[in-house]
Design brief:
Chain A: GO terms for molecular function: ATP binding; ATP hydrolysis activity; transmembrane transporter activity. The complex is a heterodimer of chains A (about 240) and B (about 425). With about 240 residues, chain A is an alpha/beta fold. Helix content of chain A is about 30%, strand content about 25%. Chain B starts with a helix and ends with a helix. The chains are: A alpha/beta (about 240), B alpha+beta (about 425).
């Protein structure tokens, strides 16, 4: 059974009597442990696809099965709970809460989980350690560099050990060195810890860190290929 | 949900916009303070008035000449029709055991403002003419010297017992006993000085000169009637019977068949106390209702600011939803914030209200020369806090609902 199964998935916006398709019939599977990059020019529907896959938005046509179950049956609250338990998000703009410590930022998903508050500190600290920011635990986002902010966001995404991590242009606002560090962490999470990763990017180089690339154009799949020569971000270069 | 953690994060969210939060709760602070102040002062005023009435004793009945005022439009209320209906004849009739068996004593009172002078000093004093039984009714006995007696009344003696303020004004530190003060061209010998007593109901004994009623009628006021007759019943239980007997006796004496035409009005202290209590209650409720309007305005201010806050934090709401917050989680978070704001405002308002009403009780006590008692109004404080929490809930619901309905992608896109 695939983790994600979409068939003829479409999203059409209706407004002022005009139908604007953002996605028009895409089909693919993502298996547990995959590292998939979704590429495409702006307007190709890649963000819409990620939002639908991440339960942030609902599709209008077609089928979406998550862990074999159709999401049409889930209420908004059900989706929120699954999002909390099984999905992690990393955004281009980091989306950290300002004037809130790194520790509290990483704790945020725990607030909406079933885990007792007494365990939060340890869980959050472990996640921060995993991205190498344990010394910055009491800092606020404004005191961090862009790369560090994105690492906090990754720590937040993996704090509840999700099945799948959705990364929306995670390196889009970073210099190439910080960007590589982020890709390194994502690759590690995928290879060592078995997290499924879905990455959105418009840079071919970044996309080639994934094992498979789905290219979108005008809301349709243009190609869906395995990456032959995968890039591996070298750990030693960045954590010194 | 982790209530404590949510509380903590709501607090820190409010700290981020410190000055805005402070300004927002000002409306609630003012509203709660006003309500506290009004209810505390109202309550103190009531207990003061009641204690004044009760200090006259629960066996006391006052008879006032003229008609019972039936309303502000009744001309008799202003002109006191039949103002001379109470004379010695009435007292004698009341004192007959066959008429009013449970009557212990009936005391006439005449009074008026007259200037009293000694040497070069003059003071505008309340001249009260009565009998020595006045001392028992008002529980006021001379500190120095003594009261006049039956013989002084019969002889129309020109003697006076003076209040401590009058004594100070006219004599300063020197001895007043034996000296003669001038009232309306007559010399009255001071035979006693009252201890400080302050205001009791209508009379401020500190500024009074008490003289035999006969002398007051003939030499000062030039009248034959009395302004009041105070009756003391033998027991508290007999008050209603005495009241009834007084009415029957006086009506018979004045040939009145229809109570509508009464030319006197008798009331017990209990009745007066009840009437006054009703009046002060209504006043307090009315004023508190006016003060409550400011709470309403404060609540609308809270709603306004919370709406601004929801818009400003659209992307935060989206993020929280992406991380697994349900609509109810978001709703709760914003309701917590507005409730914390108003509860804080309520607490400050209660503290301010208690402090201000304490100060007011001191100032009013000084101004009016009365023992204005103050007690911490626990019920009003409790109510003030409960109301502010409710205002926070009520006016926080709409903004919080709007926040909870935001779609996560709309919210994440918002910059």
């Amino acid at each position: 059974m695939s983790l994600i199964e979409v068939k003829d998935l479409a999203k059409i916006y209706y407004g002022d009597g005009v139908q604007t398709p953002a996605l028009s019939g895409v089909s693919f599977d993502i298996n547990k442990g995959d590292f998939v990059a979704i590429m495409g020019p702006s307007g190709s529907g890649k963000s819409t696809l990620l939002h639908i896959l991440g339960f942030l938005d609902r599709h209008t046509h077609g089928k979406y099965l998550f862990e074999g179950k159709t999401i049409d049956d889930y209420s908004d609250d059900d989706l929120a709970h699954i999002r909390n338990k099984k999905m992690g998000f990393v955004f281009q703009m980091f989306n950290l809460l300002p004037r809130t410590t790194i520790l509290d930022n990483v704790k945020l998903p725990l607030l909406y989980s079933d885990i007792k508050e007494s365990g939060w500190d340890k869980i959050a600290k472990d996640a921060i350690k995993a991205v190498g920011l344990e010394k910055r635990i009491d800092h606020e986002p404004s005191q961090l560099s862009g790369g560090e902010k994105q690492r906090v966001a990754i720590a937040r995404a993996l704090v509840l050990k999700p099945e799948i991590i959705f990364a929306d242009e995670p390196t889009g606002n970073l210099d190439s060195k910080s960007g590589k560090a982020i890709m390194e962490i994502l690759q590690d999470l995928n290879e060592k810890d078995g997290h499924t990763v879905v990455l959105i990017t418009h840079e071919t180089y970044t996309a080639e860190h994934a094992g498979r690339i789905i290219r979108l154009h005008d809301g349709k799949i243009e190609s869906d290929k395995i990456v032959d020569h995968r890039h591996h971000a070298k750990k030693d270069e960045f954590f010194k | 949900m982790k209530i404590l953690y949510i509380l903590k994060s709501a607090f820190s969210a409010l700290r981020v916009n410190k000055s805005r939060s402070v300004l927002t709760i000002l409306g609630i602070v003012i509203g709660v303070t006003a309500i506290m102040l009004v209810s505390v002062i109202g309550e103190s005023a009531q207990s003061l008035v009641l204690s004044q009435v009760e200090s006259l004793g629960s066996r006391t009945i006052a008879i006032v000449p003229g008609r019972e005022p039936s309303g502000p439009a009744d001309p008799s209320a202003a002109e006191s029709l039949y103002a001379d209906s109470l004379k010695m004849r009435e007292i004698e009739a009341l004192k007959k055991p066959s008429n009013v068996p449970d009557l212990e004593e009936a005391v006439p009172i005449v009074f008026g403002l007259y200037s009293a002078s000694f040497g070069g000093e003059t003071f505008n004093s309340m001249v009260i003419g009565s009998t020595d039984f006045l001392a028992e009714i008002f529980d006021i006995y001379p500190e120095e010297g003594f009261f006049f007696d039956e013989d002084d009344i019969k002889a129309r003696a020109e003697v006076a017992i003076i209040g401590v303020k009058l004594k100070d004004e006219l004599f300063g530190n020197s001895d007043a006993i034996g000296e003669k003060i001038r009232i309306n061209g007559r010399n009255f010998r001071v035979i006693g000085v009252f201890p400080p007593k302050g205001q009791i109901l209508f009379f401020n004994f500190d500024e009074s000169a008490v003289v035999p009623f006969t002398s007051a009628q003939d030499y000062i006021f030039g009248i034959k009637h009395f302004n009041r007759i105070i009756v003391q019943a033998k027991t508290e239980e007999s008050v209603p019977a005495v009241l009834r007997d007084i009415e029957i006796t006086l009506r018979e004496l004045h040939n009145i068949t229809d109570p509508e035409n009464d030319d006197f009005f008798a009331s017990s202290q209990i009745e007066i106390a009840e009437t006054l209590k009703t009046i002060t209650d209504i006043l307090t409720i009315f004023l508190a209702a006016v003060a409550a309007i400011s709470l309403l305005v404060g609540g609308i201010g809270i709603m306004n600011i919370m709406l601004v806050s929801v818009t400003e934090r659209t992307s935060e709401i989206g993020l929280r939803k992406a991380l697994g917050a349900t609509g109810n989680n978001i709703l709760l978070q914003f309701i917590f914030e507005s409730s914390i704001l108003t509860t804080l405002g309520g607490l400050i308002g209660v503290l301010l209200g208690v402090t201000l009403s304490f100060l007011a009780s001191i100032i009013l006590g000084q101004l009016m020369d009365m023992a204005w008692d103050f007690s911490i109004p626990f019920f009003a404080a409790f109510l003030g806090i409960v109301i502010s929490v409710l205002v926070g809930l009520l006016f926080g619901i709409y903004p919080a609902y709007k926040a909870s309905q935001k779609s996560p992608i709309e919210a994440l896109r918002y910059e």
